[in-house]
């Protein structure tokens, strides 16, 4: 199913330099993505998952945020050392992104056709006719009905689900190897979400695309992903094949998070298992394991020293001191 | 059968749709709520599910008397709420409260937490200043916070705590019914379970009824005793929650269920992917409103509107398949 590694992220550190100090939003994140694979990056809001994605795309808010350390290797080339001009040639053609809200990612004053043409003409210049053929082909791929008439419409003439399809069409129009999908279905209704997830899966399988799927929802991970990486307060705390992580989550945070979601299969009587407390704020991170203040199993060492990463199965690792003995 | 706490009878809310500014002409109606009936029993939860634009929020506004229906009526403890005024309306407002989705916009950022919670009590003339302060301290404890936190302002709290504050202000006047409009969907995943548990504890202790508006079916299944499914302004499926989910009688409910994300990679449900999107409520389809997206559509469906009828004991569904 999965082939060569197309994207490898090594020890990525992205910091925000604010007036009140430096905030380490991404603090040593590493993962790899193989061809034709879907990797889920799960975490709560403020865990650093979107900033990780923006770091890969080199689209961080300037000048506040900067990637201070690490490597992002896309087919062996480090994106972090590319010039701005080189990056423009890479974005869209080799790596592209779908954002959460189609309302804000499409320009309201240009037609759908214009917006698709912009990215296609950038990478595949040609006369109007050939570019337009590609535009329509991209819209067909995302199964937008009647693309020939849709290209003359503006975003406000379409529903949320259709707009997100257009965003998808822009993202895949130049045949990228890697697609980053940052909560692409959060703004959609449930039945439309199902349509969109199916579409992404089909696109991924037909063009052997590698997808980094950013979400806060373990249900989407279960449905879409081959592997999963769980982020908490700027670090990946557990990563592994999706079945292993669901069957046997090893990090207390992953365990608690999976347990706290109401299940559909059976009606559980009574109370849900909860995670006490709040996620930490980046300006005031605990010195040791970031989950320690909320972890029922934390001891002195957890509170003072960040745990190493322990291998607990094939391609399955977790950052927790309690796994030291088992490893 | 005893009188339920809240009864909604053939409720309609049509918004006129006009053209022109000076000599505006009504050229149609958006039928946001188009003839719904349901009831909420004391101390129980009714889940109201449906996609955006199905009329869930309009229904909740009508119940909160933030809007008036075009026709039909709402009864609280057997009394119509529509002609309440003055003292009676004040009492109604203390008995029916609400918690909204987004605690970042529902709390006034210029008021201290204590004043936010006290506001209902002041408006409904709860009692003396001291009684009010005492009640504020009491509800803060009930929602798992500390009385001293009444001095603080909303920006000093996280999302989960803000939602606790919103809940405290709803609980302050000892209501009998709380409308919960997507109470956890704006919260972090790790916080949601805390709030859901808190809601259940409160219901058990105070016997307060909830009208839970949510799009997450797993949440509704966990919380609700009865569930009503809405589509384009109408209730299409209505039953005790377990019955609704285990004996699926309406194709739209089936589609919603198959859109629920799995809780394990191996528990993929058999999929029923609906074609297209929800049609405009300005011009709803003829016959059964769902027929344009229904995979089981029959010729009859586009002509005849199916009635909501008891297709299994206690289970009401509006579908020609069940006749």
Explain what you see.
The complex is a heterodimer of chains A (about 325) and B (about 325). Chain A is α/β, with parallel strands linked by helices and about 325 residues long. Chain A contains twelve helices and twelve strands. Chain A has helices at about 50-55, 85-90, 100-105, 110-125, 130-140, 145-150, 160-170, 190-205, 220-225, 240-245, 250-260, 300-305, and strands at about 5-20, 20-35, 40, 65-75, 75-80, 95-100, 180, 210-215, 225-230, 235-240, 310-315, 315-320. In chain A, helix 4 (about 110-125) packs across helix 5 and helix 7 runs parallel beside helix 8. Chain A is globular, with a radius of gyration of 21 Å. Chain A starts with a strand and ends in an 8-residue tail after the last strand. Chain B has helices spanning about 55-65, 85-95, 115-125, 130-140, 160-170, 190-205, 215-225, 240-245, 250-260, and strands at about 5-20, 25-40, 45-50, 70-75, 80, 95-100, 175-180, 210-215, 225-230, 235-240, 310, 315. With about 325 residues, chain B is of the alpha/beta class. Chain B has a single domain (about 5-320), classed as Rossmann fold (3-Layer(aba) Sandwich), CATH 3.40.50.300. Classes of the chains: A alpha/beta (about 325), B alpha/beta (about 325).
Can you lay out the helices and strands and say which pair or pack?
The complex is a heterodimer of chains A (327) and B (323).
Chain A lengths: L4 E14 L2 E14 L3 E5 L6 H9 L7 E10 L2 E2 L5 H7 L4 E4 L3 H4 L6 H12 L4 H14 L5 H4 L9 H13 L5 E5 L7 H18 L2 E6 L2 H7 L2 E6 L2 E7 H6 L4 H9 L39 H5 L4 E5 L2 E4 L8
Parallel strand pairs in A: 3-8, 3-9, 6-7, 7-8
Antiparallel strand pairs in A: 1-2, 1-4, 4-5, 9-10, 10-12, 11-12
Helix pairs in contact in A: 4-5, 5-7, 7-8
Chain B lengths: L5 E14 L5 E16 L4 E5 L6 H8 L7 E6 L2 E2 L5 H10 E4 L13 H11 L5 H14 L16 H13 L5 E5 L7 H18 L2 E5 L3 H7 L2 E6 L2 E7 H6 L4 H8 L50 E4 L2 E3 L6
Parallel strand pairs in B: 3-8, 3-9, 6-7, 7-8
Antiparallel strand pairs in B: 1-2, 1-4, 4-5, 9-10, 10-12, 11-12
